[in-house]
């Protein structure tokens, strides 16, 4: 388990050391399509995070199996985000909450996505281990990573 986490951390660090530049969308249709795909991913992330939030607030009981499922989904979806944010849509009139600085500071933005990936991976491990005392902090890391990105790169 630790080897996988270490590999993710090292891989993330290596990726963030290179200059990351997004390619501009090729057309208005391309920009619209990519934006819609990103929004679909975020809708799925939101649906999976919602259950975790309800558990953390005590609205529903902690369920290790549900945490594993949602953590795995969030991890996979987070990996897709970098792909869809690799296309700079800022030059087109698309309906998005993404601020243009996403594409001006791509390395930092990708670091924020990597934080979500790591938090989701960690939650999956915590849920598998079944230590209920670690559930809240692990879920909290998911929300912390989301907030870190929203604070800097999402319009209110």
Describe what this molecule looks like in 3D.
By secondary structure, this protein is mainly α. It has six helices and two strands, in the order αβααβααα. The chain has helices at 2-17, 28-57, 64-84, 101-104, 106-129, 135-153, and strands spanning 23-24, 87-88. Strands 1-2 form a two-stranded parallel ribbon. Mean pLDDT is 90; it is low at 12-19.
Top keywords for this entry?
156 residues; mainly alpha; two-stranded parallel ribbon; 6 helices; 2 strands
TL;DR?
By secondary structure, the protein is an all-alpha fold. The chain is built from 6 helices and 2 strands.
Write the layout of secondary structure elements.
Layout: H1 2-17, E1 23-24, H2 28-57, H3 64-84, E2 87-88, H4 101-104, H5 106-129, H6 135-153
Parallel strand pairs: 1-2
Helix pairs in contact: 1-5, 2-3, 2-6, 3-5, 5-6
Average the pLDDT over all residues and give the rounded result.
90
Helix segment tally: 6
Q: Provide the low-confidence segments as ranges.
A: 12-19
What is the number of E strands? 2
Structural class: mainly alpha
Main sheet strand line-up = 1-2
* Beta-strand content estimate: under 5%
């Amino acid at each position: 388990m630790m080897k996988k986490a270490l590999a993710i951390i090292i891989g993330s660090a290596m990726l963030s050391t290179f200059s990351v530049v997004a390619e501009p969308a090729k057309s208005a249709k391309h920009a619209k399509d990519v934006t819609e795909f990103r929004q679909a991913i975020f809708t799925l992330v939101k649906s999976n995070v919602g259950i975790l939030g309800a558990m953390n607030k005590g609205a529903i009981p902690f369920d290790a199996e549900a945490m594993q499922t949602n953590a795995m989904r969030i991890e996979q979806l987070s990996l897709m985000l970098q792909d869809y944010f690799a296309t700079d849509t800022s030059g087109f009139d698309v309906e998005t909450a993404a601020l243009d600085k996403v594409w001006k500071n791509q390395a930092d933005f990708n670091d924020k996505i990597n934080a979500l990936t790591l938090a989701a991976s960690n939650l999956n491990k915590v849920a598998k281990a079944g230590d209920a005392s670690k559930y809240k902090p692990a879920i909290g890391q998911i929300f912390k990573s989301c907030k870190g990105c929203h604070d800097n790169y999402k319009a209110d």
